[in-house]
Amino acid sequence: MEEETEALEEMERELEEMRECYRSGRTMEASWRKSQLKGLLRLLREREEEIFRALHQDLGKHPAEAYRDEIGSLIKSVNYALDGLKRWMSGNKAKLPRIALLTTAKILPEPLGLVLVISSWNFPIGLSLEPLIGALAAGNAVVLKPSELAPECSSLLANAIPYYLDDKAVKVIQGGPGIGERLLHKKWDKIFFTGSARIGRKVIAAAAEHLTPVTLELGGKCPAVIDTLSSSFDRKVAVQRVLGAKFSFSAGQACIGVDYVLVEKKFSSALVELMKVVMKKMFGESPRESQSVARIVNKHHFLRLRSLLLDPLVKSSIVYGGSMDEESLFIEPTILMDPPLQAAIMMDEIFGPLLPIVTLNKIEDSIEFINSRPKPLAIYVFTKDEPLRRSMVSKTSSGSIVFNDAIIQYLADTLPFGGIGESGMGRYHGKFSFDTFSHQKAVVRRSFLVDFWFRFPPWNDHKLQLFRSSYHYDYLGIVLTVLGLKRTNRASKGI
Amino acid sequence: MAGEDKKQQPFDSKAASSLVAELRGAFASGTTRSYQWRESQLRGLLRMTDEHEQDIVAALRSDLGKPELESVLYEAAMLRNSCKFALKELQRWMMPEKVKTSLTTFPSSAEIVSEPLGVVLIISAWNYPYLLSLDPVVGAIAAGNAVVLKPSEIAPATSALLAKLLGEYMDSSSIRVVEGAVPETTALLEQKWDKIFYTGNGRVGRIVMAAAAKHLTPVVLELGGKSPVVVDSGINLQIACRRIIVGKWGNNNGQACIASDYIITTKDLAPKLVRLPYPHVLVFSLYGVVSCTLPYLFQVDVLKNELETFYGKNPLESKDLSRIVNSDHFTRLTKLLDEDKVSKKVVYGGERDPTKLQIAPTILLDVPRDSLIMNEEIFGPLLPILTVDKLEESFDIINSGAKPLAAYIFTNDKKLKEHFVNNVSAGGLVVNDTTVHLAVHALPFGGVGESGIGAYHGKFSFDAFSHKKAVVYRSFMGDAAIRYPPYTNGKLRLMKALLGGSILGILRALFGRS
To answer: Does residue B106 belong to the interface with chain A, where contact is any CB pair within 8 Å?
Structure first.
């Protein structure tokens, strides 16, 4: 118990030091922000081999995957932030009506203060550092709590960050749910959380105590709707993209990975046959030896995924793959055809390399299918049909929607990345990261020279009339009223 | 006989749940999404405000004793402007925003589409009960949502008027009013909403956010705080005081979230005085020359002078001041005034009439920082003045407390202005005036830290009630084999080059040279 109190006090002391550092104004300087971003760039370049090793150890990722999804993507984001920083920091002028003489208005972004970033285990480097880029660009002091389920990556970050970044203003606090809980109950100026909806609820409930704004990047069951495609070229590309998006991103353990496929009955068998061909090409006869599929993060998730296949009706729907090896925590990329909709595999976010294919009578039925379930983080639609495209955009709701590809929206700096409803709140990437960690402060400057005397009491009809004209930007009306040439009209509906 | 037996059904959890279900059905039917619907509802609000201005004025007078001019200007006119601005911009707001795409997602095109969130709950406050109920509704409708409005029960006449008028003028399949107090609000908060917009205080704000947390519902909280006014020397004191007065007592008698809460100024103001067209300026110039210790009295005298000009010698009888909303707040305010630490610091006003729930404009000088009046948002006609040795100290004082909704400074000193703007954190800042930023559509209106989450007004209202969906269109062409397994080191090299974005790098990788 004493140890507990001591640890809590130690944490509070560290945080107070960080708040002091923030108050000193250091993190607000453009030069500081630039130096931190450049530090991140150096970290990514110099520690590349270490990062590859850590990701391989924690998740069995091949360096190509690690670079594509984490290191490369981060480098792109840091450069984008360095490029835009000055512009972002300068804010925007706000347009004023002419009547506002000698007045200027502007929106000035300012940092929030001391922020907490809690990241997840599936892209442990990427999902820790991507929010960090935004927090630092916006001038905040940051505490990062990486996921303990990716321990090598967590250690790497804890060692590298103090070396490359300002260790008084940026700290890494490692630990499990206990530490996470303690951190959540401190007072932060913002909490940025990536993870499950269950923990997401805890985060926002804790934030409510201090009226702390939050961004929650959660998950959901992201569907891939595959329309009947006539061209065999298109079919091959579609299948490659869907299977790539499912199995080659952290073995399906990705919030924007494809969770399940929706396809018309009459196209489904052709689709499955094509999928089998592409699967062989991508993963070979023995996927485990191919080194192209990550492994499951830990035993808990392995057992969870295995139990999804225990239901005999689900098991019998497997059309490809299905083998599992508990010792190496490996699950073969698996395709299922029409498992029962009430089975757990169709109710919960799968987060693993199991791909159910759900057949429908008409492809348009996919709209209702998707809408009867919680709003997902992303919807993927493979089609060339214009009316279907328009319907999907206007009739479904999701964090994002992508046509004829998947996951690619993650790389776009100009698109907001975030969820809606159960899949999250808030967004980031590109300038949206900067904005999510900033307060947009309204600033109005007035001169002493101009005032409308009718601003002030005592009130009378004359002043009321002048106000009516002002609100209407009726400059002539103002002049006439002042000159006594316009009658004051109490019942006027002119305003 | 049957009519007499009809009892009002209590609005409980079950009623709230079926209300939400009904509105979800209406939203799912797509009615609220069309431009025509949104436009017709906004026009409805405009007509409603035009045709019932006098009823609105009467309700506000009954609830708050609000002077007609304040009701017409700060509630009716502002709401009208909000509607008109939304009507003017709506088509543009509804259009998708095309965005640039880069080499990493080539070839593709992308845009951001605004879509309604669904069914939203708006809980409003009692001090500007008409405006603060309907201004968020304007945003919610413009964004295409179905809306439930819960007006404040502390302004009952306005609440009843809103229930009646919205029932008459708006599409009641998608826009509803629920009147009531804590039980009804609790029942509403238990439901799953797509957004909750709350205007009020921090205590209830926490309750709203905690309730929203259960359903992962995003919120906008428009709260409050102690909005300070820093007054420097070397300015036109008369204009400054007038602006401070109209921003405080001219706004519902100080019961406004962005009213100046307290003044901070230097003990030492005299040498930088500005000439005034009043006789006593000569006296005070002498004062300045003779004694540098009490020049802040000059400022108080300007304040006193202007207050008298505005409200007369007996402000309790002035028709131009709102009364205190109810006896709870009256008691709260008199407690602030009568605390031992500050009761002797009153230099102007202090009169009160409990029967009429009126408190005269009151100024207190040099209140201790640990007094009650300096530790809660005053929300009333009391204006304490804090004095410091150097004006720069005021920034530390402001930043050591909770971030307020607004902060003001009166100064001509360029460096001080910049220092203030760059270092004081608040929802919004105004230099050389107070409260005016509220009326600028192009500025986001909201708090930070304890003063709130989110913002609205103008397009920010539309955005607050929209989901900005990212839409990417890709063609089937332009795929790179390097995207897919099997993974090789060659693919790794190429990928590095592509993500690096340099053509040379790509060429090198393609030819195996990097």
So the answer is: no
User: Rounded CA gap, B400 and B423, in Å?
Assistant: 12
What are the residue ranges in chain A where pLDDT is below 70? 1, 98-99, 450-454, 471-474, 485-495
Concerning whether A17 is annotated as a catalytic residue, the answer is no
Supply the DSSP string of A53-79, one letter for each residue: HHHHHHH---HHHHIIIIIHHHHHHHH
Are A199 and A265 part of one and the same domain? no
Whether B217 and B239 map to the same domain: the answer is: no
What CATH number did the domain enclosing B342 receive?
3.40.309.10
Mutate to test the interface with A, among B484, B498, B502 (most CBs of A within 10 A): B484
- Options A70, A255, A264, A422, the catalytic residue: A255
Residues of B in contact with A91 (CB under 8 A): none
pLDDT band at B107 (very low <50, low <70, confident <90, very high): confident
Closest residue by Cα to residue A118 from A36, A56, A55, A186: A186
Q: Which residues of B touch A443 (CB under 8 A)?
A: 421, 428-431, 437
Report angle CA B469, B470, B472 to the nearest 5 degrees.
Answer: 140
pLDDT tens track for A281-307: 999 888 888 888 999 999 999 999 999
Q: How crowded is residue B343: how many other Cβ atoms within 10 Å of its Cβ?
A: 11
CA B220 to each of CA B197, B208, B455: distance values in angstroms, whole numbers, following the listed order: 5, 10, 7
C-alpha to C-alpha distance for B460 and B198, rounded to whole angstroms: 15
- Under 8 Å between Cβ of A402 and A378: yes
Are B468 and A399 in contact by the 8 Å Cβ rule? The answer is no
**Strand ranges, E, within A44-174:** 92-93, 103-111, 114-118, 141-145, 170-172
Q: Which of A65, A70, A217, A349 is catalytic?
A: A217
Contact between A115 and A67 under an 8 Å Cβ cutoff? The reply is no
CB–CB contact A451 B239 (8 Å):
yes
Place of tokens 């002078």: B305
- On whether both A344 and A400 belong to a single domain, the answer is yes
Q: How confident is the model at residue B281 (pLDDT cuts 50, 70, 90)?
A: very low
Closest chain A CA to residue B234: A448
Contact B448 A439 (CB under 8 A): yes
CA dist B355 and A436 (Å) reads 49
DSSP per residue, A359-423:
EESSTTHHHHHHHTSPPPSEEEEE---HHHHHHHHHH---SEEEES-SSGGGG-TTS-B---GGG
Phi and psi at residue B431, to the nearest 5°: -100, 125
Q: How far apart, in whole angstroms, are the C-alpha atoms of residue B231 and residue B248?
A: 15
- Residue (of A244, A291, A263, A204) closest to A407 by Cα position: A244
DSSP of B295-320: THHHHHHHHHHHHHHHH-S-GGG-TT
B47 touches chain A (CB under 8 A): no
User: Could you give the angle at which helices B156-169 and B35-51 cross, rounded to 10 degrees?
Assistant: 130
Test A211 with B472 for CB contact under 8 angstroms: no
Phi/psi of residue B224, each to 5°?
Answer: -150, -155
B514 within a domain of the structure (yes/no) = no
Same domain? B271 vs B361: yes
Q: What is the pTM of this model?
A: 0.92
Q: Would residue B500 count as lying in a domain?
A: no
B425/A contact by beta carbon, under 8 A? yes
For residue A184, the surrounding DSSP H or E stretch is helix A177-184
For residue A436, give the 3-state DSSP assignment. Answer: helix
Please check whether residues A112 and A165 belong to one and the same domain: yes
Q: Which domain holds residue A141?
A: 2-218+430-441
Average pLDDT over residues B361-369: 90
Average pLDDT in chain B: 89
Kindly write down the DSSP assignment for every residue of B142-157, as one continuous string: HTT-EEEEE--TTSHH
**Cβ burial, residue B455 (10 Å; 0-12/13-18/19+):** buried
Which of B254, B255, B222, B236 is closest to B457 using CA atoms? B222
